[in-house]
Amino acid sequence: MFCDKVKEFLSQKSIPFVERDVVRDPEALEELSRLGYMTTPVTVIDGEVVVGFDRKRLEALLGL
């Protein structure tokens, strides 16, 4: 549910992103674990992590 919100938000703002499916991609799951999370969505912007759909934080990190 929140994954779709993040993707929709980024798409509406014409922000390119790479979607990683932790269910189908073991490397993506390992990367998520290394970040210290086991929940999704996790968005990484210039090394900063946003967990869930936090519009204000996403906008701030993206300079919107």
Give structural attributes.
two-stranded antiparallel sheet, about 60 residues, about 10% strand, globular, 2 strands, about 45% helix, 3 helices, alpha+beta
What's this, in brief?
With 64 residues, this protein is α+β, with helices and mostly antiparallel strands. The protein has helices spanning 2-12, 26-34, 55-62, and strands spanning 42-45, 48-51.
Structure description:
This protein has 64 residues and is an alpha+beta fold. The protein is 44% helix and 12% strand. The chain has 3 helices and 2 strands. The protein has helices spanning 2-12, 26-34, 55-62; strands at residues 42-45, 48-51. A two-stranded antiparallel sheet has the order 1-2. The mean pLDDT is 95.
- The fraction of residues assigned to DSSP E strands is 5-15%
Structural class: alpha+beta
Oligomer: single chain
Tell me, rounded to a whole number, the average pLDDT: 95
What is the first-to-last residue Cα distance? Answer: 23 Å
Give a topology summary.
Blueprint: H1 2-12, H2 26-34, E1 42-45, E2 48-51, H3 55-62
Antiparallel strand pairs: 1-2
